Amino acid sequence: MPLQNVMNAAMRTALKLPVVSKFIGARLLTLYVVGRKSGRTFEVPVAYTPHDGELLVGSPFAWGKNLRTGESIEIQLQGARRIADVRVIDDQAGVIDMYGIIARDNRNFANFNHIGYTPDGEPDPRDLERAFADGARVFALSPR
Question: In angstroms, what CA-CA distances link 143 with 9, 42, 72, 79, 92?
Answer without folding.
Answer: 23, 19, 9, 13, 25
